[in-house]
Amino acid sequence: MIKKKLPKELRVCAEKCGAVCCKYVTVKIDAPRTNCDFDEIRWFVSHEGVTVIIESRLWYVQFDTRCKFLDGSNLCSNYENRFDVCREYGMDNCEASDGEPPVVFRTMEEFDEFLEKRKQKRKKRAARRSKRKKASEVTK
Ligand code: SF4
Ligand code: SF4
Question: Residue of the nearest CA to atom 1 in ligand 2?
Answer without folding.
Answer: 82
